[in-house]
Amino acid sequence: MSLDLRNIDGKWLALQVRATWEIRSAYALKEHGYEGLLPLYPQKRRWSDRTKLVDVPLFPGYLFLRFDASNHTPVLSIPGILRFVGTGNAPIPVEDSEIEALQRATQAVVNYGPCAFLEVGQEVEVRNGPLVGLRGRIMRFKNKLRLIISVTLLRKSVFVEIDSYEVTAVSRPTTSPLMTHGLELEGCATPA
């Protein structure tokens, strides 16, 4: 089966990479002329003599690239890259809106980090502040509101702390015991 590269030209694709190779592979993609995206977030790391903030991948084991059919370097020949995320040998493009949301969230001066993937809750749109126009699902965690931005293909999410005055409802809330009882969701705690 031959893959028609015209269907994915200019589209964002997810790549699975070797463990701990995200930064090296993203750099190698750039060196080979590809536009890549490796969302990072600050995380406290503790050593025996000190504690330091280090940037770590939001999606460990994955990075994104905008595919360029005119680039003759095979993506899978770049060190650390294992495979395209998709079905069979056909990559599935990531929605442009999801990539834009990730880019804007990581560039804004807000608290963000990895979070459990959510499909329930009320969809909202940010109406002011640095994230105006972004859509996501809203949840409450320890008396703070969080906008959940999801990458559906990877089934992973990112939270961004927001204030209630910054959002407006887009759809009616989904009835869910998770949302109505305000339970803390594993993976949505602020990174330590």
Describe what this molecule looks like in 3D.
It is built from 3 helices and 15 strands. Helices cover 14% and strands 38% of the residues. The longest helix has 12 residues. It starts with 11 loop residues before the first strand and ends in a 12-residue tail after the last helix.
Question: What features would you highlight for this structure?
Answer:
6-stranded antiparallel beta sheet, mainly beta, 5-stranded antiparallel beta sheet, 192 residues
The average pLDDT value, as a whole number, equals 79
Poorly predicted regions are 175-192
Q: What is the straight-line distance between the termini?
A: 47 Å
Q: What is the strand content?
A: 35-45%
Instruction: State the helicity in percent bands.
Output: 10-25%
Shape: globular
Task: Please give the radius of gyration in angstroms.
Answer: 18 Å
Query: Order of helices and strands, N to C?
Result: EHEEEEEEEEHEEEEEEH
Q: How many alpha or pi helices?
A: 3
Biggest β-sheet description: 6 strands, antiparallel
Number of strands: 15
